[in-house]
């Protein structure tokens, strides 16, 4: 954890990298060309800065056609906040944040559909092992607290079923795309969740990266900022437990979602 935090502080220590994060905060999901526009920076220099931000997990990338889009990942900064902001300070700061978000919500949103939450982690395992850990009912029951159940064929239903013996599912959906061991796309909604805008979509992208597996989770079509914050907290906890399980065989002592 300390080593990860050191990378975050190193990445944030440079004014240019902070500027790149600011630009992504203002307009998330930009190509390299758009990020360089108006900065007087070469593509090579921007690529080096973005590489450090990605290594610190502050930026994630998702391919859209021929383009690679860059997304701000606020989770590491949130973890710094959680470490040093006390419980008595948090209500006051959250109230100030609520005022800020309310002011920003008046701004027109971009009409382009973009991933609303993107998280990337690196796991010391094989592609096949990570894929199995995402799709095997018994393994997901161990580190996630729910069994992911499906035949994982495109068009098939899937369930995120409780392990308490009730047979109830907290999340249901459809397998949109399955290309083991590299890509899985599913719809995601509560069993009684009426969503005029349709269910959200979760994409798992897996690829080899320097002896590890780079796993990127993209959660799209979330209702609002509150649902995005819930997704951010849930996914960071689940993926931390997944990484711990695959690399050590153990689990975190207290999953954040409990």
Automatic annotation (TrEMBL):
This is HTH arsR-type domain-containing protein. InterPro entries: ArsR-like_HTH, ASHA1/2-like_C, HTH_ArsR_DNA-bd_dom, START-like_dom_sf, WH-like_DNA-bd_sf, WH_DNA-bd_sf. It holds the Pfam family AHSA1. PROSITE patterns: HTH_ARSR_2. Transmembrane segments: none annotated. Residues 1-92 form the HTH arsR-type domain. GO terms for molecular function: DNA-binding transcription factor activity. Belongs to the AHA1 family. Gene3D superfamilies: 3.30.530.20, Winged helix-like DNA-binding domain superfamily/Winged helix DNA-binding domain.
